[in-house]
Amino acid sequence: ETGVTQTPRHLVMGMTNKKSLKCEQHLGHNAMYWYKQSAKKPLELMFVYNFKEQTENNSVPSRFSPECPNSSHLFLHLHTLQPEDSALYLCASSHGTGLNSNQPQHFGDGTRLSIL
Amino acid sequence: SQELEQSPQSLIVQEGKNLTINCTSSKTLYGLYWYKQKYGEGLIFLMMLQKGGEEKSHEKITAKLDEKKQQSSLHITASQPSHAGIYLCGADGRSTDSWGKLQFGAGTQVVVTP
């Protein structure tokens, strides 16, 4: 899957650091998503953006701050993270404008984040 | 929220044998998606089922949606090493407050042995 690109692929950071994850989609989609995948847990939806507007914040701690400057780019700004935040962070996009879109989400390869 | 239970959690199958994975929902299924994931990588979209009784096939993979049972199954015929990975089902609630909120099962890890 090359339509959704995530950088970096791997990131190691200390709890006091500030870093950002980047996601870019080349599929012409208008909706973008951040997911967290921890070991032995189901994929957890974090944020949803539709036409650059945030439509969902799934009770995510404020140390995670999303930014969507346009429909093709999505960022996840990280600061003062905790060890339990270590996980695979996946970005996805879809061409959906509501209930009748019925379009699958396409995923990037993720950023493997490790908090020291 | 909708919960999806996948079974089995993992399975080992000999190359050339068939396998079936099930995904059962706690609520009515309106749209069911099947994805495949290799360890540490992103999810690859396989198939989407929208109607009760719908069945789709791609190469050696067939997925069915049983609306009454709130269940979907994924069947692989004559498995190959390339079929190894984690299979996840995802469902959307298809309501005004759940658009874009795909709920996923925990996944089924498939290992294909020679």
Describe the structure in your own words.
The complex is a heterodimer of chains A (116) and B (114). With 116 residues, chain A is mainly β. Chain A is built from no helices and 11 strands. In chain A, a hairpin with a 2-residue loop joins strand 5 and strand 6 (53-57). Chain A is globular. Chain B has 114 residues and is an all-beta fold. Chain B has strands spanning 4-7, 10-14, 19-25, 31-37, 43-49, 55-58, 61-66, 71-76, 85-92, 102-104, 108-113. In chain B, strands 2, 4, 5, 9, 10 and 11 form a 6-stranded mixed sheet that branches. In chain B, strands 1-3-8-7-6 form a 5-stranded antiparallel sheet, with no helix packed on it. In chain B, a hairpin with a 4-residue loop joins strand 7 and strand 8 (71-76). The radius of gyration of chain B is 14 Å and the shape is globular. The mean pLDDT of chain B is 89. Classes of the chains: A mainly beta (116), B mainly beta (114).
Condensed summary:
The complex is a heterodimer of chains A (116) and B (114). With 116 residues, chain A is mainly β.
